[in-house]
Write a structure and sequence with these properties.
The chain is an alpha+beta fold. Helix content is 42%, strand content 17%. It binds one RNA strand of 77 nucleotides through helix 6, helix 12, helix 14, helix 15 and strand 19.
Length: 677
Amino acid sequence: MSNFKRTLITSALPYANGPVHIGHLAGVYVPADIFARYLRLKGEEVLFIGGSDEHGVPITLKAKKEGTTPQAIVDKYHGMIKDSFEKFGISFDVYSRTSSKIHHETASEIFKTLYDKGEFVEQTSGQFYDEEAGQFLADRYVTGTCPKCGFEKAYGDQCESCGTSLNATDLINPKSVLSGNVPVMKETKHWYLPLDKYEPWLKEWILEDHKEWKPNVYGQCKSWIDGGLNPRAVTRDLDWGVPVPIEGAEGKVLYVWFDAPIGYISATKELTPDWKKYWKDPETRLLHFIGKDNIVFHCIIFPSILKAEGSYNLPDNVPANEFLNLEGDKISTSRNWAVWLHEYLEEFPGKEDVLKYTLTANAPETKDNDFTWKDFQARNNSELVAILGNFVNRVLVLTNKYYEGVVPVAGKLELRDEEALATLIQLKSEIEKALDTFHFREALRLTMEMARLGNKYLADMEPWIVVKTNPERVKTVMYICLQITANLTIAFEPFLPFTMNKLRSFLNLGKLQWSELGRRDLLKAGHRVNTPELLFEKIEDDAIQRQVDKLLATKKSNELEQATVAPAKPHIEYDDFAKMDIRTGTIVAAEKVAKTMKLLKLTINTGIDQRTVVSGIAEHYEPEQIVGQRVSILVNLAPKNLKGIDSQGMILMAESKEGKLVFVEPSEAINDGAEIK
RNA sequence: GGCGAGGUAGCUCAGUUGGUUAGAGCGCAUGAUUCAUAAUCAUGAGGUCGCGGGAUCAUGCCCCGCCCUCGCUACCA
């Protein structure tokens, strides 16, 4: 750990199809920023890298939907993201983007190197192709009828109605999103990274050599590695991205997951000609700050790429966080369930640090956590205002009152003074230990202890009483208080940079180094401090209520949207309907299908016979409670083998908008086998 | 179903290689205090450490089984 000379910190590249929200901040940018600021404060050589991830299919789709170009989309969001990071005070040394020229060059080069070294496997497969548009169709570029729920506008990768994940080839009546035409199946060649080849090495490198990684990270890597790794396509047929730099690969680009992490390298190149020092010198420590959704890319795939390339450093640690929820629900960009950074900055001007504080104090370090506005308010009012702001204010008010703002000369220190100063040094080493091991929540808590220490010292010393009898003693007390306050400007600097700027201006003090934390002479006797303003202000209920109302409104509009019923399918002829033989029936036996989550094996009396049907309803019904249940059954559906069982027919279920399945049964008792027509 | 991560005070979390009465902050109650944004300081109440077995002189921590939450994965005629 100590044999590194410098540190390169990367933070996950936000995807440029939407703005940044508190989930991104809590998971990645706030901890990365704290760490970067901490190392800088220690005088270490450090680079903090960020940038927008601008390739991939979702961006092309969004462009299509909005009738504009992918470039216009990424320009818009890149600008927005970059701007809000800057205002929020995420201290990137460079914030780049993957649509830049330098990135295209870098990504191409790395691809080319691996290609030339024979690290890829070539494979040809069939994929949908739009003849009119003259291009292959990514899964999301194909729509059609979902084979499961019959939803007409299912995408090739996922049905948005029932949530099933699909392959484009599963769709009934597939259609190209581009032209609306029926796509044809065509052969296409792609390059794959044979991850299976790296399995033994990954086992050694992660499972043996990096046992110190966070449990959630280590565990997930282990899960992936033990599950067996498969070759992964590094290219795809698309016209938005980094073109595949070899002959015969026209119309193909690098898969976004391949080019995105290379963005860290290009950003470094953009920043400094000396970039190799940061990426190739083994004395540089590489750290990836990411969210848990990115663990496999940063721990397995990207290191495999770098390893295959051969000349790059591998990450020393990947301190991934879990997810932050918002008021009990998952944050979702598409459902607008989020606190957007750019909106926060407008609605809470000057309170950047308050959000940083809350997100750090409540960071999802070991498990998913919940952000609530009520907690936000409490953290501000009872910690930032009451503990930190209040202490600073008390000290400066007293200093102004007793000494017209001039730091007094201390007399001989008493035991209690020495103790207070010693605690400061003790806390310093504890904070260091927490930060060095990425325990930011703990580090912040310990830092707050310093302010608590100050409050307690003041309360114990009671200078406002002693001043009447022993004004000399009060000079010492206030001197100590002022030193504690000055120390706060160092300790809090990584967490609350704007606020510490303000505090330094109150104290008339320049920026100090971490090594000076713990000193008892940061403010010399005779030094003049200013009259303070408030460091933090209380957040009143109405401000919080406005935010809660805003979320409630979002919830309401989401519900309305959900309540809309799927539109009717196109007309069919009576004959089409008549082909289906639907009967009444009764469930006579039911059992769970072993090793599945959703499947029940049902024995149905159809009137015609007793037969077995496998049905995906196990999440909705216990086997014992549905014996005797009347059902509607499609009896002439072609049999299908599911998990080793022949399923002969299909039970008709009605699905509610919440996704609940209920049986469709006759309204009166009727014999099994009655035709439904 | 498989794999991974979690399940500790009302809330958010610590609990190091198993070892004395299980900790912190917020919230709550009581008291002290007034320099301070009714802020601060002290004291206290509050926990069958998810459930059930087991190994041990001893377990929140080890072993086995089960339940719940989150993620990945298989499956949904």
